[in-house]
Records
---
Amino acid sequence: MFIAPKNTDLLLTEAEGENLYLKLIEQMNKDFNLANEGIDFPLSISPNELKIQLHEKIYRLIQYKFAEYLNLLYIIDVSEEQIKKLDGSDLVILSEQVAFLILKREWQKVWFRNKYR
């Protein structure tokens, strides 16, 4: 049964532990490209760098390209209910929380595909 990790660091550690970290990066690159928000995380990117770059990308999308940000959330299939629960008063914190929700959803896809293939 899929149990979502509680934070970004635990999620990335779990992905590495299950040897699915590269699949997670590939899934994120694929979905960002589907949303026309090309981001090419190299497969050699460290988990910490991935976390930082994703946070920066989401921050810029919220601030400058809001329609594209919403489209990205739709393509990735991030829960609208979870997004609505977030406090949007601090953009830096909001973008970090959204980055975690994106990672969590992408991890869920990779985990299920690996488990049930």
---
Amino acid sequence: MPLYEYRCPACGVFELLLGMGAAGREASCPECGTAARRLPGAPGLSRAGSPEARLIERTEATAGEPDVVAALPSGPRRPARHSTNPLHRRLPRP
């Protein structure tokens, strides 16, 4: 259910959880009972099927508990790429 914001002239802004399309232009303030006008809000758009949304959901899901790796990935190993910069040869090696 959507959350609607209303502004009471005496008490300030408050939120009401109402069914879709059930929110009127005015509602009574829960504290003082004065008529409060509904504030315009941004629509809750979602990209539930997009690759970006799936990446964000996966990142959030694994932030606290990362996936456990049971084995090395299968497939051919790629050879290590060697740097072509001659200055890298002077770096200390482990």
---
Amino acid sequence: MRSFPDDLARAQREWSAIYHELAERPGHTELRRRLHQLSAQVFFHPHWQRGRPHPAEWRELRDLGRSGIGTVSERLER
């Protein structure tokens, strides 16, 4: 498995958690906004500057994000 920068892995984990939370509670504008921000942060991360990732790299990053799925309710309370 490839290693990804900590901030990229963290963003992908948060993306996965928010995606699942949004699936359970659709229509929350705040969640949709954050998901959009994280999508841009992951897609345009400096780690990919050497070139766009291969599908296998995206898959590994997505799997990494799914392994850390948790709740984002404490973030929403802020």
---
Amino acid sequence: MTRDEAIQAITEKVQLRKAQQITDTANLTFFAEKLVVDILDYCHRDDFPPSLVYTVADLICKRIDDEVKAVAGAPGPLKRLQQNDTTYEWAVNAANAAGLLSDADFDSIKPKLNRWRKVVWS
């Protein structure tokens, strides 16, 4: 699958799952393109493996969910919980939407990418 075909397929899958939450298709296309290019670079490939379309679509859907939570003001991960008099302390107030598609997210799919990675001899 070519790079452009992969981007198109990914955006279609994400739009299918998150139709009500997507207001900016240009932003969606940007995220899909970024991940496709990063994957092609990491895997040393010119073609995009079709089975990774769903992996990338899931990662983008996760980002959309995180952005919705951040806009709604949902708290971040729990840092401390006290049982008596019930005290909650959050590690962060809210997730930063700009940093959600980070290296940590890309690292989470590396085990799957390694299956498609080509060896490059220098």
